[in-house]
Amino acid sequence: MENDFEITSMRNSAEHVVSILKSLANTDRLLILCHLAKQELNVSQIEQITQITQPTLSQQLMMLRKSDVVSTRRDGKQIFYSIKDEKLVQVLQTLYELYCTKTVLS
């Protein structure tokens, strides 16, 4: 019985991780998340920093909301985005250290 619970728990965790990894498997979404790992940003700030055009940005932000990796906060007319799970921030920091440092890019 305990083994069944463990398998079910592992399967649920695996499904959650797959969902998160799918959200990372797009250049624009990964770029957005890398910036959100540093700080909460509104849509205009994300557009300016990433240089992703508005229609594409809206589509990718919608995908991130659907995959439940970001949370939103409204302040007047502005919507601010942040990463929901601190573990994802740690994953993004690790990816940055492994693949985005000057040493790796040289």
What would you note in describing this structure?
By secondary structure, the chain is α+β, with helices and mostly antiparallel strands. The protein has a single domain (2-105), classed as Winged helix-like DNA-binding domain superfamily/Winged helix DNA-binding domain (Arc Repressor Mutant, subunit A), CATH 1.10.10.10. It contains 6 helices and 3 strands; from the N terminus they run H-H-E-H-H-E-E-H-H. The longest helix is centred in the N-terminal third of the chain and has 23 residues, at 2-24. The chain is globular and about 50 Å long. 14% of the residues are buried. Residues 9-103 form the HTH arsR-type domain.
Secondary structure layout plus pairing:
Layout: H1 2-24, H2 27-36, E1 41-42, H3 43-50, H4 54-66, E2 70-75, E3 78-83, H5 86-99, H6 102-105
Number of strands: 3
Oligomer: single chain
CA-based shape: globular
Rg from Cα: 16 Å
Structural class: alpha+beta
The total count of helices amounts to 6
- Major sheet, described briefly? 3 strands, antiparallel
Within CATH, the superfamily carries the name: Winged helix-like DNA-binding domain superfamily/Winged helix DNA-binding domain
How are the strands of the biggest sheet laid out side by side? Answer: 1-3-2
Portion of residues within helices: 55-70%
Query: What's the architecture, going by CATH?
Result: Orthogonal Bundle
Pfam families: HTH_5 (PF01022)
Domain HTH arsR-type: 9-103
Keywords: DNA-binding, Transcription, Transcription regulation
GO molecular function: DNA binding; DNA-binding transcription factor activity
